[in-house]
Every structure is written in C-alpha cells, then in structure tokens.
Specification:
This protein is mostly helical. It is about 85% helix and about 0% strand.
Length: about 290
Amino acid sequence: MLHRHSGFLLALFAATGFASKAIFAKLAYRYGVDAITLVTIRLGLALPFLLLMRLLKFRGERPLSKSEAGWVLLLGFLGYYLSSLLDFWGLESVSASIERMLLCLYPTLTVLLNAWLNGSKISQLIIRSLLLTYLGVALVLAPGLAHGKADLLGIMLIIGSTTSYALYLTWSPQIISRIGAMRFTELALLVSAIIMICHFLAVKPVALLMHQPQEVWFYGLVMTLFSTLLPVYALSAAIDRIGSSKTAIIATLGPILTILMSMKLLDETLTAGQWAGVVLVMVGVWQVNRRGK
C-alpha cells in the first residue's frame, strides 16, 4: 500500500515539476534573456550531473551498438533539444496557459504518428477522444485568434515542439526495450545538452552567459532541478510503482497545474469558454492515455 501511495505522490510531483517549467521560463524572460540562452542555461546546468550519473553506471553496462547510438543521437536531438528550443521560442510570445494546453496534445499526436508510421489501428473511441481534444484546443485559442491577440508564429512553434516530442515518444520504445528506460533518458538528455551548448557557441558570445542577471541563473537552476532532472527520476520511479498507464493519467493534471500557477504568479486569465476548452482537452487526453496504450 505504501509503495503504491508513494508512486502516486511521485507521479504528482513529476506532473507538477513539468507543469512549472513554463512559469519559470516566463519569470526569467522578464529579465531580458532570450530563448537560446535560457535553454542553454537549463541544459548546461544539468550536464555535470548527467555526466556523473553516466560515469557511475558506465562500468556495469554493455556498450551501445552503432544502431543504438544512432537512435540515442536522433531521439536526444528531437526530444530535449529541438522540442525544448521550439517550446521556449514559442513561450516568448505565448502565455504559459496556452503553451501547456498545446504541449499536452503530444499523446494524441503520438497515437496519430503511430498509426501513420507503424500502421497501427485507431479505435472509434480514440477517434472520438481526438475530436474532443482538438475541439477543446479550438475553444482555448478562439478568443485570441478572434481579436488578433494570438501570436500565430508562437503557436506554430509550440505545435512544432509538441510534434517533435511526439516523434520522440513514437520512436523511443524500440530503443528503451534494448537499453533500459533510465539509461536511455540520461543519454538523450546528455546528447541534447551537448547539442544545445554547441548551438549557443555557434550563434552567441560566451560572455552573454556571464552577463545574465542573477535572477535568470536562479530560474534556470530551478528549471534544471525541479522541471527537468527531479521530475525525470520521479516519473521513472512512479512508473515502476504504479505502472505507465496510471502515471500518464496523473500527468493529465499538468495543464490545470500550469494554469493555476500562471494565474497566481503571472496574472494570466482564461474566459469561461476557454475553461470549457480546457475541460474538453483534459477529458480527451485522459481517454487517449487510458485507452491508447
């Protein structure tokens, strides 16, 4: 019983940590930092820890094959580098609430990508859930689009981020089954951190990092710990205790947590129609998570 309860708490902690990422990014943007620099700080601060974990575990693991190494490189690029960068670019102009609603579409996109790439069938229940989800997204976006206040480029960047992450989820099971979930996640994060640092060095001066206000470094560190590393390990532990299906269902609380935090810390608001859209999205995603395994 205690084992199961701890699993639910770990899943809730992971959902809260992932949900808070957009809040911390928005708070950091108030100090003039750009997306490339902020993502570099976030992943750069994670790099020493990831290297240490890999060194500690390296001796007990078999070497990766060329095929496995290639998949780790590709999925690290898609899952944590490209997805994160597009997301943070979008957050420069899109509210944290809208961003989270768009990001939580990744289970539905994963189902669609699996059907397209792997030829898997989609049940009528999943089709109805998908329609419900995208109707909810339309309601959430409608006020901003109707009044010309929505930033279409920002929305497209976040949709691109969601698609990139959905591809990561679609292709990762085959490599996870061969090298293990935790090893794969650590390696993918490590790859993404190295790519992001190389990207930064190619387009920005190193001195830019040193000239960032202390507040930017603080929020970057908080994102590294509470929105990246700790949630990743908590999620893995939760799956081990209560299974992936229950963990995924708890993860659907993420949008509500982000919206509540954004209302408290960022003074963001939603209309009644947008709240109705949020409910539809959550119900649709919950059904996809429950039935689409």
